[in-house]
Structure formats: C-alpha cells, structure tokens
TrEMBL record:
This is DUF4836 family protein. SUPFAM superfamilies: NHL repeat. It comes from Pontibacter aydingkolensis.
Amino acid sequence: MPKRIVFFFIGFVVLASLAYYGFNRWKDSREKVDLWAMVPESAAFVVETNNHTALVEHLKETSLQESFSALSAYQRFEENMVYLDSVSPGSQRRERFLDKKNILTSIHVIGKTNVEFVHYIPVNSVGEHRFFRNLVDNINKSNIFEQESRQYQDVLLTDVTNTRLGTRFTYFTYHNNIILSQSPVLIEEIVRRIGRGKPVSIAAGFKSTNYLTQPEVYANVFINYRALPDVLGLFLSEDLMPQVRYLSSLSSSAMLELKLEKDKIFLNGFSEPENLKNSFHNNIAPVKPRALGVKNYLPNRTAMLMHFGLEEVAKLKIQPNRKEAAGSAYGATLDSLALAFNNELALAYMESSSINASPEKVVFAHTENPDLVRRLLEKLNKQVLASRKKKPYTEKYGSYTIQMIEVPDLPAKLFGSLFAGFEQSYIVQIDGYTVFSDEVATLRDLLDDISADNVWGKSVAQKAFLEETLQEGNFSLYLNTVNAWYVLSRYMTENSREDLLQNSTLIKRFNQVSFQFSNAGKQYYTSFVFRKQDSGAISGEDAFATELTIPFESRISSRPFAIQNAVDRSREVVVQDSSNVLINILATGKRGWVDTVGSTIRGSIKQVELGADNKLRYLFATANRIHAINNQGQNLENFPFNIGDTLNIQHLAVFDYEKNQDYRLLVDDYLGNLYMYDIRGNAIDGWQPRRMDYRLATEPQHVRVSGRDVILVLLENGYVYALNPRGEVYPGFPMNLRSPLTSGAFVKAGADLRKTEVTVVTKYGSVTTFNLQGKLITREQLVRPSKSAFFDLEAEGNNGKSFVIVRQEQGKVAVFDQDLNLQFEKRYVTSAPKIVQYFHFGGDNKLYVITETGPQKTYLYTSKGKLVGNSTLENSKPVIVYRNEASNDYTLYKVFRNELQKISFRLVN
C-alpha cells in the first residue's frame, strides 16, 4: 500500500510537471512580442506595413510598380519569391500569408559595403502555422532548395539556399514570429539582442505614433539619422562625407507616414532633434522657419539646392578660434558681415554638362540692410587689397555691378565649412540678396536667367512642385535628379556609379525631390517628396501635329530665324523669300512687319535692346551692309551701314562688353578681313580692316575674363587668334592647330586668362583644349574610320552652355558627348554632308536634329538616339525648336518650298 501511494504520487508529480511545462510553452508561444524591440540599433531605416495587398495594388495603379520593377534588386527579390511560390502548399500563396498583418523590414549597412534587409513577420493563426510548417517541409523536400539547421545561443537557426539562383537566407522563429534575412550576421545579432532580455525599442520615442490607423497611409517609416551617413557613404565619395555627417546631425530619428499618389511619394511626420554637442541642431538652435524667397532668383537649370531658413544665418558657422580671428587683418569685418545676413541662406549647384566638369556653385545670402552689406564688402575689399597695392576689380553687367574679393573660401569664413570650395569670390547684390560665386561667368549667366524669367518663381513646373512641399522650413534640400545627373555621377564612388546607371530610369523618373525640416517646438515637422514632373506622351503616327501652315507667294530662301516680340517678348519667326523680302510671323500666326533688303541675309538675326524704352531691335547683315530695324520693319537712325560695294560679308557678330547698350558690330568677309563699328556707325580703330591670313571658319566669339575682353577668331586653316577690343593679339597667340577648322569653339570662362578654357575640334577629329594664355591643356584624337570622315563641334542651339561633337562619314553620322563618349550613330541614304543641330532644354530634354539636304528629310532624335515619332519631316534647312515647360511639349518651325510650318511634338525617352 505505501509503495502504491508513493508510485501514484510520483506519477502525479511527473504529470503535473509536464502539464506545467506544456502550459508555459503554450503561454510563451502566445505571448505578444514587440517586433520593434527586436530591431538592432544599427538599422538605418525600418518600414512597417499592415496591408500588403493594398500596397501592391496601389503601386500597380499609380504605375510606381513599373518603376520599381526596373531595379535589379527588385528583380532578384521577385525571382526568389517565384521559386518560393512554386513550393508553397495548397492555394494559400505568399500574398494571403503576408496580408493584413503588421510586418517590419529593417535596412542595415553591413561591413561598410553592403545593404541588407531583415523581415519580421508575425504568424497569427493556426492556419498560418500550418501553412508555414508545410512550406518548410516542402522546401526541405524540394530539389530547388537546400536547408540546414544549426544552434546559436540555444536558438535554432535555419539556412536555406536556392540552388538555381545561388542566393541564401537565414531564419528563426520566436514567439509566433518569423525573422529572416539574407545576412546571417544580422540574424545572429538579433538573437544576441533577444538573449540580453527586454531590449528597448529603437523607436521608443515614437511609441504612441502609428500613422497606419489613418486613411491612405501605407507604411510607418522610421529613420535613424545616426546611421544615415553609413548608408550614404556607400554611394558618395569620401570628400562629401564630412558635410553629410554634419547635416545628418540635425535630428537623431524620425517616424514618418508613407503616402502614394500617381507618380508621387510623400513621407511626412516628425523628427527628434539631435542634442549631441556640436550637432547641426545645437549650432543653429532654430526658432521660426522661413519661406523660400530665393525661388525668384534661382535658375531653372539648378540641379541641387540647400536652403537654410534661420533668423541668424551666422549660426551655421561653428564658433571660430578667437585668437586666429583676432590675428586676421579683416577678422572683425568678416564677423560684422556674417551678422548682417539673416532669414535665408542658400547654396545652389547648377546643372553640369559633363561628369568631368566641376558644377557651378552659387551662394545666396539674404539681408534686410543691403546698404550695410555693400559698405562692409567695400571695407573688406580695401583691407584685403591694402597690403597688395592692387585696385579692386569690378565690372558692370547691365544695371548690376560685379566685384571680386580675393579672400580664399570667403563663403566658408562667413557661413561655415558647408560653403567651402571658393578659390575667390565674385559678388553681386540683387535686391535683398548678396550672391557669391567663384566664377564671374556664372554670375553673368545667373543675371541673364533672372532677366529672362528663367527662374523657379516663374517656372510652371517648378511652382507646381513647390506647392506640394513645405512653404516654410529651417533646412531644405531640393534635388532635380535629371539636372543633377552629371553632378551625382561626379560625386559617386566608382562602385556605385554603375548602380546609378543601371537604376537611371527610376532615379530620373522621380526627378523632383525635396527633404525639409521645419521647427515645431520640441520636434521638426519633416516632409520628403518624390515627384515626377507632369508630362504626357505622344507616339506613333500622332507624334507630330501640324499646328500652323503659312503659304507664301514666293519660295522661301532662308532658314526660319527665331526672334522675340519687341513688346511682350513672345516667340516669333522671320523668314526671307526668294525676292529678298524679310517677313515677320507673329506668335498668333499672323504676318507682322516686312522689310525689303535687296540681298540675302548672311549669318543670323541678332536681337539687342536699344533706347530708353529698352525695346528689342533687330540687327543683321547682307552682302555688304549692316541693317538695324525696329518692330515695324523700319530702319533705325544711321542704318544701314554701307561697308563696301566690293565686300562679301560672311558673318555678323554683336558684342555688348558691359551690358550697357554700347554695342560693337563686327563683320568678316570672304577674304578674312574684319570690320568693327559702334552702334552709331563709327569705325573702331584697329579694325578698318583687321586683316587675317585666311577666311574665318565661323562667327567671331567674345568672352570677358577678369575685366578683359577677348575676341576669338578661328580661321579655316587651323589658326586661332585671341584679340583685344583694339584688334591686338594677346600673348601666346595665334595658335596653330595644324589641321583645318570648320566649326566654332566652346569657351568655359574662368577667373583669369589662364583658367579660361577653349575647346575646338579640327576637321579631322583632333579635340584640343587650350587656355587664353595660348597654353595647350589637352589634345585627344577621335577615331577616324576613313579619310572621308570629318568632324564638327556643335554648340547647344539655345544658350550654348554645352556641346556635342559630330562625325560624318559616307552617309553615317555619329554623335559624341563632351566626354568624347559615343552617344549614337545613324546611317542615311546619301553621302552628302548633313545639317546637324543640337538642343538642350535642361536635364534629359535633349534633341538632335539631322537634316539630309538631298532627299530633304529631317530626323529628330531623343537623348538616347531614339527616332521621334518613327517618322521624318520634309525639310532641307536648319529648324527652330522651342520647349513649352508648362505642358512639356515642343514646337518646331521649318520651311519647305513656299511654306512655313509650325509643328508640335513630345519627347518619349
């Protein structure tokens, strides 16, 4: 009896122990786990979703899925998923298993070279447990996968290898959750994190924030700004990383909502300030955000803009070494100048035309007291030049005065290291903004853009974008990925540049990007916008739409000449018929003024502002005369100029040295003689005539460098002259290129003659770059397939800020970019020389127009060499092309026989 009691007691204890163990195991499996607490602190981003199906469907509806599917990483992921679907049990596929549950994905940088992902997936029901168990069994049975299990700190890890793709992932289960990643290192880190007991969530500061409860929100996105530099460091060159680390220290972390619209991605939420010593946040201590007032002065060709909205912009500069400042002859003036700026500070990078070209940089500093800034700049300049016994450099450009201050890195001394890289500073004051650049040509181009309203504040496309961004901010970064393409390529690491090219479709599609932070008390309201500029698409037979056809009584003998209306600056056209009558066609398509000139026009029609009303006047040359007419077709006083009855003029060049309407008119004849006059008809000394040894290859070109005016004259025999306004040759010239020239030069103006570069290409393909001291910089020979091949340099047809090189040979035309890379090559019917035109309207909006004069056919090509509309136009002369930015379509004017046609089309790259 006692033995039986002992036996039953032992049995009861064993059963109770088993029941208790089973209960605890069941309880543990049912215990809710905070997935956020499992995420390692090394995560740079964490994305939380709760409706997988809705997200995928919305991506398809908005065409974003098509964009993402072009990414190689996405394609590899989908390949893996296809194989997993092939072994999934029953009809319950991946979408059903993933739908309607909160799933986390964390993104990490591993080993400073790779980006890896971790997925945290709950298993919520008995059916899902059964699905997952059957999936694991099927994977184990499949000949597609290999599966191995191992113990790591008492946790069972399973490694699965796809034998077809060679890919691998590791997973484990924890309290009804699956944690998997392609990185076993991250999986092991998570196991260690769990083993330490009750880890703190990486997003603990946003515990009460859940945007997924709101309509039209597809994800919570957590950003760890402390890890962000590690992500960007994978792509950007080390030179940029100090600035990236500093800017990232504005905030420590953020939780943002993800919203998707057609061709738009929005991320909005709040960021926690970074309170570490010397952080960006602690230095600027922002109070009130500011509006983007500088938009009215930013050119449309801006590639990237950093904008700081601060009451005292001098706070951007970390406090200087006082002993060093005290020892400077002008340290006190610099301090006073820095404190004179307020509310807005911006650093803009202009669009670059080549990966090898340093992008132009412009600094805009706002002041409420322009007169004080002017006086301080004058004082600083006197202090700088006092010991050097030099006179200050200034130049007039229209109504503006540009001055140079020879203080290395002046913007950095005023505003901090983010503004470094200015060897010298050229400065101009525009309303309440003081503008800095290290190249005077950059400021001239900027002033031209402002004068022509080619600025963000006047741009329909840019205004539409800015309306969707924060209207006020403390720090904003704006990026146009298309305009910034060469800038991005230049500052990418070698390894990431290939990825950039492979993902160019998606990157360029979302070409308007903004990142903004606006003070909202103890946090920053944060907004990220990725937007595709509105555009349409026309293809096939409807690619070209004829908007206007104007017949003339006589055959049209000239190309169409582009002009602007003298009153409202609308786009107009002038043609010349076989009776040598000039006919003006208004923007409405009606006829305007006419002028009988008695001879064919030589060169092009120039437009200049003349008189107190600053109205446009039209200058052009015929065989032996220079003409100037008003918007009624009437001759201006003293015109036309009779140059000489025996002359045969080739070109007319018009120079306005200081943009003050003191024009110089320069013509050359077929013998190589140059004649120059002022606007009143007075002959200029040294030019009556200035005899050259040979006929000119192209129209003379003017460039102003550090107060010097240089006139470049290229001769057909390969000699290049650099002349001053008196016709005298600059030292180092003429240069003998030892090969004929048939096209003009591309000039990149620098701070002085030594730094100003001129690029030419000879008829036989030698690409030569030299400076205005006559020193050779580079010389490269392009491939010349045969002796019949010849080359030309074609400057961009709108503003001449870029160029391409064209090779023609036996009916084939090849186009090379500025880095001498072949863009495309086409074969045509005849071997006669083709008319090649190149238009660049910013970013990828490039158009190549190639005309065969024999068959009288014109072909239009996109930046990728794709034929526009898969058709040709009847034409035998150069064309005019305009772009309508608002509708993103194009207008082309061409002449054929006795008709002028206006044709509209769109580019589909």
